[in-house]
């Protein structure tokens, strides 16, 4: 009888501790703060994560930030997670954040990506096929390279400042946003004007227009036309602070076809981002199941069951 009472007391104590642990995690981790650079791929992946996390009982805050502000926000514990750590292009400028432990990688969420300068096919056909050809077409290009938001164009700014690839004259990087850059490209293509811009894969631009990636940009963007992987990263203590959410983000891995299809729904078909993200999950239930292995709701219930029910996944 004494042994039974002791065991019962121990079980009660463990249950109380477990309840306290869940409550403590709720207080610290219920709000998940995610950085958004204004890129369509991150909009798709962030919103996918947001829909799942809300179904699990979390709250999500997405903030539109420049890349450098994203890293500083992670370092200062003002942001929790970022799904757009493109490598190797971000490795050099942000190495210190990883070396210090202020920012930690959780997983590689995409392989087979690329990220470098590109031109419409008719510009390549005219002879502009590499970084070393830029100067020859400087006048036709109006000495302009079209980039995206500030903080993401540093390799190009450094290239112009150092006058590498024979660049000479008053070259400039036009910094704006993904949407503004693509609108400028579309206007140029319609008029058959010369333009050079920052291109990447995955993105519907690769299927919606004929384009060529420029060779010779290894120093700026890495080999294989800026061949890249994309990582999910977090503030330094997040894995210890929020293990359940961390497990989810560690599982959350995409592929090129998935992202191209989802982004095309948004940019070509005109679906709102949540609708596209939801449709992609309903069309790929096995992926969702993989993403939720070992993940629970915020109150400890099976994660996949909750998400399946909330998002009507068959």
UniProtKB/TrEMBL annotation:
Keywords: Signal. Residues 1-23 form the signal peptide. Residues 32-279 form the ABC-type glycine betaine transport system substrate-binding domain. The keyword Signal applies. Gene3D superfamilies: Glycine betaine-binding periplasmic protein, domain 2, Periplasmic binding protein-like II. This is Choline ABC transporter substrate-binding protein. It comes from Rhizobium alvei. The gene is choX.
């Amino acid at each position: 009888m004494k042994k039974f009472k002791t065991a019962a007391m121990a079980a009660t104590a463990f249950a109380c501790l477990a309840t306290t642990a869940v409550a403590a995690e709720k207080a610290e981790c219920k709000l998940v703060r995610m950085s958004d650079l204004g890129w369509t791929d991150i909009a798709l992946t962030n919103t996918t994560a947001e829909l799942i996390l809300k179904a699990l009982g979390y709250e999500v805050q997405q903030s539109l930030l420049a890349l450098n502000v994203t890293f500083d926000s992670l370092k200062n514990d003002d942001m929790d997670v970022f799904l757009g750590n493109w490598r190797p292009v971000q490795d050099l400028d942000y190495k210190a954040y990883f070396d210090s432990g202020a920012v930690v990688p959780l997983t590689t969420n995409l392989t087979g990506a690329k990220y470098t300068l590109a031109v419409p096919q008719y510009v390549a056909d005219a002879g502009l096929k590499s970084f070393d050809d830029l100067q020859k077409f400087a006048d036709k290009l109006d000495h302009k390279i079209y980039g995206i938001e500030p903080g993401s164009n540093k390799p190009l700014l450094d290239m112009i400042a150092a006058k590498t690839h024979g660049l000479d004259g008053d070259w400039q990087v036009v910094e704006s946003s993904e949407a503004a850059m693509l609108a400028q490209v579309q206007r140029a293509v319609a008029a058959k004007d010369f333009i050079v811009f920052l291109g990447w894969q995955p993105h519907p631009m690769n299927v919606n227009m004929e384009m060529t990636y420029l060779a010779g940009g290894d120093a700026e963007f890495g080999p294989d036309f800026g061949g890249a992987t994309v990582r999910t990263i977090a503030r330094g203590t997040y894995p210890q602070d929020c293990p359940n959410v961390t497990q989810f983000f560690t599982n959350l891995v995409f592929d090129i076809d998935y992202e191209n299809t989802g982004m095309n729904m948004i940019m070509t078909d005109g679906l709102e981002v949540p609708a596209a993200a939801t449709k992609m999950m309903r069309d790929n239930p096995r992926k969702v199941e993989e993403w939720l292995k070992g993940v629970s709701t915020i109150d400890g219930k099976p994660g996949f069951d909750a998400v399946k029910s909330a998002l009507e996944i068959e």
